[in-house]
Amino acid sequence: MNHPTLTDYKLIEQLDYMDFYSNPSSDTLIVRFKESTVVSADMAKESLDLILNYKKDHTTYGITDLSAKFLDFTTEAKNYYRKHMDKDGVALNAVVVKDIALKVIANTYARFDRPKIPTRVFTSLSDAIRWIEDAKP
Q1: Which of 43, 36, 32, 34 is nearest to 94 (CA)?
Q2: What is the pLDDT of residues 29-51, one digit of tens each?
Q3: Which of 33, 69, 94, 106 could pair covalently with 63 via S-S, beta carbons 3.0-4.6 A apart?
Q4: What is the Cα–Cα distance from 96 to 9, expressed in whole angstroms?
């Protein structure tokens, strides 16, 4: 995977299907899905449990990197995330996708699904990080 190096972020947890990074102030968490992943409901629960546990004490900003070449979510995983994501206490969320077409689809989905967390979609991780940093008080 050709992810940019996260020089200001530390790898804090690894699962077979995703990595978790945090910045030095621990107020921003980046979740990066790995290549060739099909996320099941069990994986969604495991990852969200880790995210919620970390965010309890540390984080108010989140970036979800969905730019892996092959990434899919089962219907059960999508439903699990949708039902439980509002409990994570995130002030802002950025989503990174791999291209403009997916950005249009994600933005359309977000308009209709109305996430409870202010969310923007990007095609660049550095743009997502910049948006989060600029929005911090």
Answers
A1: 32
A2: 999 999 889 999 999 999 999 88
A3: 94
A4: 16
